[in-house]
C-alpha cells in the first residue's frame, strides 16, 4: 500500500491549475445567492410574496456542490492519475506468412458444398481477419505460380483479392505446388528479415512433388503448414458446358483428399496440418503456428519492451455520470453544449443517416436503389449530382452543373446531356472541348462524329420539308400528334438522333471514393438511327445478334422515309427511332424492348479476375516457359 502511495502521481499536473477558477466561480455564485436573500431584511414578510418573483425560500446549495464536484473530478481525470507501470513493446510484429492457394481444376470439385473453390475463398478471408499482426502474402498456382500480393499488413486488400481467385485466371493449367513453394520462399527471403511460415491450401500432391518440396525447405528456417481441401471420397469436376472432366484414357477425373501425404509433408517441414472445416477450429489451430510466433527469445523480449505509466484517469468518468444526468435535467448541460457549438454559416437539417454516412454515400445508396431524384438532392459532389440528374432525365440541369467542371470527362458528359436534351450545336462544342483536353477520349470522338451526322441529317430533312411546302408541314404535324411528344421546343425530331449517344456518362459509374469507370459510348439501339452509324469497341459483338432484326427494320424504315417522304412511313420511322429518348424526355413508361435495352445499359461486366488474368499471363510470357510443367493436367 505504501508503495502504491509513493508511486502515485499525475501525468499532466498542469490540469490541476483549472481548479482555481472553479473555486472562484463557486464563491461568486454563493455571493450572488446571499445578495438575492438580503431582500428579506428590508421588506416586510407579508409583502414578499407580492413583490418578489418565485417562492421566498432559502437558496439551494446542492447545484453548486454538484458543479464543484464535477469540475474537480474532470480536472483530476485530465491530469492523468497513475501509479502502475505497464510494459509496452517497442517493435511491431512483422512475422511473415505466405499463403499458397491451389487454383487447379480440382478446386471446382463439389465434394465440399458448393465447391472447393468457394469454401477456400471464405476460409482465406477468415484467415486474414484472424491475423491481426504480422505480414501476409498471397500466391496462386496451377501449372505455374504467380504472386497475387506481396508481403503486406493490409488485410483488407488481401480479402478483396481473394474474391477474384479462380482457375480461370491462371494462364497455364495444371498442378505444380513446387513452383508455389519456391515463389513463397523468395517472397519471404526478399521481403522480411525474419523466418516465416508458408501455408499451402490444396487437396492433393504427388509423392515426387512432396519430395521436391522437402528438399527445397531442407536448409531453410521456414515452416510449411497445410490446409487440406476436399474429402477422401472426392467428387468429379464439372465442366461449364456440361459433363465432367476426363483424363487421356477417357475416365472421369475424381480428385480426392490425400490427407496422409499432406500431413506427413507438413510434419516433415515443421508445420501443422488441418482439414478444412465449416467452423474456425482449423484456422485456430493453424494461425497460432503462423502468427503468434515470438519475435525474440525471453531475454531479448525483455530488452525490446518499454515500461510506461498507465493512465487511469478515464475511470473517473464514471463519477461524472451523476453530474451529467442532473445537469441535463436542470438544463445546464444543454446550455453548455449550445454555448460551445461553433456558429455555422449554413444551417442544415439533421437526419439519423447523417450519423453513419456522408451525404455523398447516402446519394450513392439511393442511386443504386433506383431513386435518382432523391440521390440528386443528397449528392454534394457536382459530378455525382449531375449523374443523378442525368438518370432522372433532367438533362439540361445536369448540363448546367457539368458546365462548371473543367475536366475532359465532365465536358464529355455535358455533351451527352445536351445531346439528350436536343441541343446538338452545344453538344458538339462540348465534345470538342473534351477532345481538346484529352485527345485520347475515343468515346467523345465517336459521339462527336455521330452528333455531327445527325445534325447534318436534320438540316437535310428540314430542307426537304421546306421544299415540300405545306404538305411537309402537315406531315410533321401528324408526326408530333402520333408520337405523343409534348416538347414545344422542336425536340421531337431530335429524339432519334440521340440514340447514338451513350446512355450513361463516362464518369457516371462512379463511387464516393472518386473512382471512374467509363462505359461504352454507344448503346445497341444506335444502329437504328442511321445505316452509317457504328458501335463502339466495347459493344461490338455483344448485342449484334440480339438487335440485328430490329436494326434492319429501323434502317429500312428510315430509308423509305428519306426517299418517298410518305406521311405514314415517316411517322413509323420517327416513332421507331425516337421512341427511347422521347419516352425518357416525357417521363413515359418504357416499352418492354426499351426496358431490356435500359437494363443492358446499366449492366457493367463483372470480371474481378480480369486484372489478375492479364497480370499472370504477362508474367508467364516473361518467364518464356522457364519452369517446366509438372504433375497432372487437372
From TrEMBL:
<feature type="compositionally biased region" description="Low complexity">
    <location>
        <begin position="473"/>
        <end position="487"/>
    </location>
</feature>
<feature type="region of interest" description="Disordered">
    <location>
        <begin position="456"/>
        <end position="610"/>
    </location>
</feature>
<dbReference type="Pfam" id="PF00515">
    <property type="entry name" value="TPR_1"/>
</dbReference>
<feature type="repeat" description="TPR">
    <location>
        <begin position="408"/>
        <end position="441"/>
    </location>
</feature>
<dbReference type="InterPro" id="IPR036465">
    <property type="entry name" value="vWFA_dom_sf"/>
</dbReference>
<keyword id="KW-1133">Transmembrane helix</keyword>
<dbReference type="InterPro" id="IPR050768">
    <property type="entry name" value="UPF0353/GerABKA_families"/>
</dbReference>
<keyword id="KW-0802">TPR repeat</keyword>
<feature type="compositionally biased region" description="Polar residues">
    <location>
        <begin position="559"/>
        <end position="578"/>
    </location>
</feature>
<feature type="transmembrane region" description="Helical">
    <location>
        <begin position="64"/>
        <end position="84"/>
    </location>
</feature>
<feature type="compositionally biased region" description="Polar residues">
    <location>
        <begin position="488"/>
        <end position="512"/>
    </location>
</feature>
<dbReference type="Pfam" id="PF13519">
    <property type="entry name" value="VWA_2"/>
</dbReference>
<feature type="compositionally biased region" description="Low complexity">
    <location>
        <begin position="519"/>
        <end position="531"/>
    </location>
</feature>
<feature type="transmembrane region" description="Helical">
    <location>
        <begin position="12"/>
        <end position="30"/>
    </location>
</feature>
<feature type="domain" description="VWFA">
    <location>
        <begin position="97"/>
        <end position="203"/>
    </location>
</feature>
<feature type="compositionally biased region" description="Polar residues">
    <location>
        <begin position="585"/>
        <end position="597"/>
    </location>
</feature>
<dbReference type="InterPro" id="IPR002035">
    <property type="entry name" value="VWF_A"/>
</dbReference>
<protein>
    <recommendedName>
        <fullName>VWFA domain-containing protein</fullName>
    </recommendedName>
</protein>
<dbReference type="InterPro" id="IPR019734">
    <property type="entry name" value="TPR_rpt"/>
</dbReference>
<keyword id="KW-0812">Transmembrane</keyword>
<feature type="compositionally biased region" description="Basic and acidic residues">
    <location>
        <begin position="549"/>
        <end position="558"/>
    </location>
</feature>
<dbReference type="InterPro" id="IPR011990">
    <property type="entry name" value="TPR-like_helical_dom_sf"/>
</dbReference>
<keyword id="KW-0472">Membrane</keyword>
